[in-house]
Amino acid sequence: MKETDVGPRLKVLQGTMEIANQLHTSSKGLEKNGAISKIINNFHSYLGYPSKYEIKDWKKVESSNKVNYIQNQLIPEFDLFHFHFSTSLLTDHSDLKQLRTAQKPIIMEHWGSEVRSLNKALQINRYAKVKMNNDDWISRKLEFLAENIPYCIAPDHEMHYYVKPYYQHVFFVPQMIDLSEYAPTFLEKKTRPLIVHAPTNPQIKGTRYILQAIEQLRTEFTFDFQLVQRMNHLEAKKIYEKADLIIDQLHLGSYGLFAIEAMALGKPVICYISDFMASYYPKTLPLISANPDTLVEKLRFLLNNQDSFPEIGRKGREYVEAHHDYLKNSAKLLKIYEAIIQSENG
């Protein structure tokens, strides 16, 4: 560890897939809390998230030389390796053996579609849909990862449900957001409210049902509707800021970063929460739960009660401040790192 005036600073490497800006946000929080966090990101998307903490040299290393780079550069440099979304440094995961041989602690953090098997999902959520309909592959992948990685992080109890049977130790760290980047606006009632839906995956998000509901309700109400797709994050956020009501998803049964961002902006959010997850979330969660069968009814109620939007928005902002602030949650993450290192060192 690098020495400072107050002692050694823990150095962690995160990778290798940026999920909803979580690698960047947690790295920023870890730095604020006194650690050093760098990122390797092998999968870039159109969302255009910041890459301030990314190790640029990694992309310049030829595939045949990456094993040597890990051995000679990364292993000596970092105290702990924190991987995300079932990825590691190399596509064949041979780096895991390198890290274990070097006695470096390894953590895997799971986020959703890489562990959400359809059969298991339907046991706790009858509206469930999955991106990867291959339960055997998911199970084999988790078994392999857990054989090589004893520690796992889950953002909520849905992910915990899928990963708990495999890993020796599972910790909770909720998703993180830098609230200073999201100024809330509690909009008053308008003659033409703006409803926004931003599906990264229309099938999973239930976009078909949302579009049907919008068309049905146009005969009863005056409003504008905007579908946000294939747009970088900063451009999309400008639209979210103008929205009066945001619709997230109707199938997953849990909320993710889009709903968190919308609540941080002070917007009422429609997002399906399963009974299973409702039993675990704080009672103060102000999301309006709707599934494909209830969306029209819920939308109609909200459009008839637009005076409630500012209060719902304030409760959403308060909820995110309490549960998803990146400084608080990166401090939790740092404590987990420190406990693992202490345990590994005996």
TrEMBL record:
Gene3D superfamilies associated with the record: Glycogen Phosphorylase B (3.40.50.2000)
Coiled-coil intervals, chain numbering: none
Residue span, Glycosyl transferase family domain: 226-317
PANTHER family attached to this UniProt entry: SULFOQUINOVOSYL TRANSFERASE SQD2 (PTHR45947)
Record's protein name: Glycosyltransferase involved in cell wall biosynthesis
Species the sequence originates in: Siminovitchia thermophila
Taxonomic lineage of the native organism: Bacteria, Bacillati, Bacillota, Bacilli, Bacillales
